[in-house]
Design brief:
about 300 residues; globular; 9-stranded mixed beta sheet
Length: about 300
């Protein structure tokens, strides 16, 4: 049964991971530069959005649950902007601060509704600050119904092995959006949500669905995962668990922008698991949410009314 908006309002999801500020410079493209064969963009509008784990937290909040974001940022202007945006969205933030860290910023230059260029500003956090984040995590954990790790491979989840163990010992569902080839660090998670290219880095490429199922189930058993939810773009989703596998076709709609679709999928799963659903029950709703968000521009989210209305 689908939880009501009132029921979801009582659920809390702790989002831990790499956070970033998404900046968009929108402009007109009327000519090519005389200095190089590149378009000249005359910027007419600037926009800022929550990115990375912050976008995941926003998706949790938009679906009606309460979100707490635990991460590490720099002592810089981008961090100040993130704090303002998080406060505006009603997201509780536990932001560790490292003066040696540059808060991640992804700047996208948009001309004629097309992304022309993306510029990334980043470095890795200091280990001491990550240890402080572990203390904050231990404090926050008992107050939440589910834990979601959003791994962008930026160094913000150094202690994820210990964090997963703590959450499972406390009986909390653990969801992970993985990155890289070392999935051993996600052992014991309730659900992990790789896309096709991410899973192929770990189990190798597959030629048939049978081969995929064999490799996914072997990985799931090796890492003691409750479920492995594979997002497959135009082929929908496949969930592998101890009962076998189940597939969900893609929602048929025009794809405008896939940015942040994985954030929406895992946020939906986390909210519904926090509300008492199991992964198989939650999967169709997560699939629909992903289908809705790819029809929007940039890092976007889906509301409770859009998903269940």
């Amino acid at each position: 049964m689908i939880p009501t908006h009132e029921e979801l309002a009582q659920r809390r999801v702790l989002v831990v991971g790499d956070v970033m500020l998404d900046r968009y410079w929108h402009g007109a493209v009327d000519r090519i530069s005389p200095e190089a064969p590149v378009p000249v963009v005359r910027v007419t509008r600037e926009e800022e959005r929550l990115g990375g784990a912050a976008n995941v937290a926003l998706n949790v909040k938009m679906l009606g649950a309460r979100a707490t974001l635990l991460t590490v940022v720099g002592a810089d202007e981008a961090a100040k902007r993130l704090r303002v945006l998080l406060e505006q969205q009603g997201i509780e933030a536990r932001l560790g601060e490292d003066e040696g860290l540059r808060t991640i910023v992804k700047l996208r230059v948009i001309g004629r509704s097309q992304q022309l260029l993306r510029i990334d500003f980043e470095n890795e956090p200091d280990h001491e600050v990550l240890t402080q984040a572990l203390d904050a995590y231990a404090h926050e954990l008992p107050q939440h119904d589910a834990v979601l790790f959003s791994d962008y491979g930026k160094g913000g989840l150094t202690h994820i092995v210990q964090m997963i163990d703590m959450a499972r010992a406390a009986g909390k569902p653990v969801l992970v959006d993985p990155k890289g080839s070392d999935y051993a660090r996600y052992a014991g998670a309730t659900v992990i949500t790789p896309n096709r290219s991410e899973l192929a880095q770990v189990v190798g490429t597959w030629r048939t669905d049978t081969q995929l199922a064999q490799r996914a189930q072997a990985l799931r058993a090796e890492l003691r995962l409750g479920s492995l939810l594979l997002t497959r773009s135009e082929d929908g989703m496949s969930l592998f668990d101890e009962q076998g596998e189940v597939h969900q076709p893609a929602q048929t709609r025009e794809v405008f922008d896939v940015t942040g679709a994985g954030d929406t999928v895992i946020a939906t799963m986390a909210v519904l698991l926090a509300a008492g659903m199991d992964a198989r029950e939650a999967m169709p709703h997560a699939n629909r949410a992903g289908g809705l968000v790819v029809g929007k521009f940039g890092t976007a989210s889906v509301s409770y009314a859009e998903l269940f209305g």
